Amino acid sequence: MKILIIEDQIHLAENILDYFTNEKIECEHAPTVQIAREKLKSSNFDIILLDIMLPDGNGLELLNQIKASNISSGVIIISAKNALDDRVSGLDLGADDYLTKPFHLSELNARVKSIYRRRNVLVNNKVEFENIVIDTDQREVYINDKVVDFTIKEQELLLYFISNKNRVLTKQNIADYLWGDNVDFLDSFDFVYQHIKNIRKKIHGAGGPECIKTIYGLGYKLSLV
């Protein structure tokens, strides 16, 4: 996941950046509308955190431009303004959520992950990697055009890997994705290893690629290299 923080309050922006960096999530910061436009032209972002009051423009106007440019990022408005009309305007323009300052970073994290999960499905409800196809509508996994029996959690984890191919995912990342807020009630992350072991076995048995790599000391990565 990659996040763009459009926020002119440097202290708040740094706190958000530090928090998500510790979560192993890539972040960039834009303190102005102009810098935000430049970053949006040069990079793709999964989530945009957007302040309304910026030194060189209005965040709602920038949101309108983002949507007009068909940028597919999820957008969460973060603003000290708690007026109903701003909230409604932002959502009407296409924002996914609205969070009023001050807020807890854990709440922001939960909303970011929720939006990321909802948006992380392709338009045709099929996600592909080499000869592996996940039909998210029918809840089926195809390998070499044949249906392979995966549990729901195994499907979710395989989808997560494909959506983050070539990125290292820690056990914490995987646990958070699979269990959400309930992850705090787990005694250990042993289930992560067991799920990955089962997925590897099923992919190999169906003639699929050996693609889930163990990155020792860090986690796992979906890659052919």
What does this structure look like?
Strands 2-1-3-6-7 form a five-stranded parallel β-sheet, sandwiched between helices. It contains eight helices and 14 strands. The protein has 225 residues and is of the alpha/beta class. It is 42% helix and 24% strand. It folds into two domains: 118 residues, Response regulator (Rossmann fold); 97 residues, Orthogonal Bundle (Arc Repressor Mutant, subunit A).
Query: Which spans have pLDDT < 50 for at least 5 consecutive residues?
Result: none
The helix content is 40-55%
Mind summarizing the main beta sheet?
Answer: 5 strands, parallel
- Estimated radius of gyration: 19 Å
Q: Under the CATH scheme, which class of the largest domain?
A: Alpha Beta
Task: Report the CATH architecture of the largest domain.
Answer: 3-Layer(aba) Sandwich
- Determine the strand fraction and express it as a percent band: 15-25%
Oligomer: single chain
Features:
8 helices; five-stranded parallel beta sheet; Rossmann fold; 225 residues; Arc Repressor Mutant, subunit A; single chain; 14 strands; elongated
Task: Draw up the topology in text.
Blueprint: E1 2-6, H1 10-22, E2 26-30, H2 33-42, E3 47-50, E4 53-54, E5 57-58, H3 59-68, E6 74-79, H4 84-92, E7 97-100, H5 105-119, E8 126-129, E9 132-135, E10 140-143, E11 146-148, H6 152-163, E12 168-169, H7 171-179, H8 190-205, E13 212-215, E14 219-222
Parallel strand pairs: 1-2, 1-3, 3-6, 6-7
Antiparallel strand pairs: 4-5, 8-9, 9-10, 10-11, 12-14, 13-14
Helix pairs in contact: 6-8
Give a quick summary of the entry.
It is built from eight helices and 14 strands. The protein is of the alpha/beta class.
